[in-house]
Amino acid sequence: MQTKNILLMILPLALLFDAGCSKIDNYSAPNSGIYGTLTDAETGGPMILPEGEGTIRLLEQNPKYPNPEPIALAVNSASGYHSTQLFADQYEAFPLALSGPFVYPSLDTVLVTLKPNALTQLNFQVIPYYRIAASVSDTTITYTITSSNANTAAGGQLTHVYFLISQDSSLTMSTASNLPGQYYPNQFPASNISNAMLGVQQTFSIPFSTTNLSPGTYYFRVCCAGSNSDAQYNYSPTMVGVVD
Questions:
Q1: How confident is the model at residue 11 (pLDDT cuts 50, 70, 90)?
Q2: Residues ≥6 apart with Cβ < 8 Å to 100
Q3: Torsion of CA 51, 184, 235, 151, to 10 degrees
Q4: What CATH number is associated with residue 202?
Q5: Any idea what DSSP says for residue 29?
Q6: Do 137 and 236 fall within a single domain?
Q7: What pTM was computed for the model?
């Protein structure tokens, strides 16, 4: 009889524990999202950004969470960002400083309300340090680098210019590598770099014989950085060229 009493006591406790666990685990899943693009505040045109060059930061604004964990959304190669895994709530949103080769001129955070079962669009205007127009013929790249007005006003000095070739269409300073056992062998630096280059059409011929590549179709790109850009590179659009 004593054994039966113990079992009868354990059963209600077990049910209570199970009910408590179900209540704890029964929370709402993320049911909202956000998306947007980064555009050039000076020209109104699109930004040229490689995948992951730039971050949009969100901070949830809810009295229940006085110290919210920052949410980082990476900017993609189309200069856009998105997330569909957010909770419906109010958020502060802004492009994170030094996360990409641009400045955020307004420096303002934007208060955005994300609604349940909906995607909210929020675009930002930023300013690149440099803009690069380029074309390629065989292994010769013709290019022009211009400094943004904001970068010029801040005394920016052009310090690095590179020419990239790769079989990888996501061509960046991190992916321009084909030759085993060497470090970034398919990045070629310009010489005599100064602000005198700005706004003036230039040419550069890639020494193709040193790349260990065979004739064929490749991706090309020009990138540059300056004294204000904290080692963040601005890029030209990716070009496709045929090397005979």
A1: very low
A2: 49, 53, 54, 55, 75, 126, 232
A3: 110
A4: 2.60.40.2060
A5: P
A6: yes
A7: 0.83
As a whole number of angstroms, the distance between CA 216 and CA 243 comes to 5
SS3 223: strand
* Paired sense of beta strands 102-103 and 89-95, if any: unpaired
Residues 150 and 206 in one domain: yes
Spatial contact of 73 and 82, defined as CB atoms under 8 Å apart: yes
Tens digits of residue pLDDT in 95-133: 998 899 999 998 889 999 999 999 999 999 999 999 999
- Are both 45 and 150 inside the same structural domain? no
DSSP-assigned letters across all residues of 96-124: PTTSSSEE-TT---EEEEEPTT-EEE--E
> Domain ends where: 105, 127, 149?
127
